[in-house]
Amino acid sequence: MIGKTEQADKRTHFTERAWLEINLSNLRHNAKALQKAMPEGCALMAVVKCDAYGHGGVLAAKELERTGVRSFATATMEEAVRLRENGITGEILILGYTDAGRARDLCGYNLMQSVIGYEYARLLDEAAACAGVSVQVHIKIDTGMHRLGISAGKTSEAGMVFAMQNLEVCGIYTHLCCADSMRPEDIACTRGQIASFYRLTGALAACQVLVIIWCVPQLFLSFPMTRGMKYVLYAVSYMGISLIGPAWLMFSAVYCGHKVGKG
Question: 44, 63, 45, 46: which is closest to 2 by C-alpha?
Answer without folding.
Answer: 63
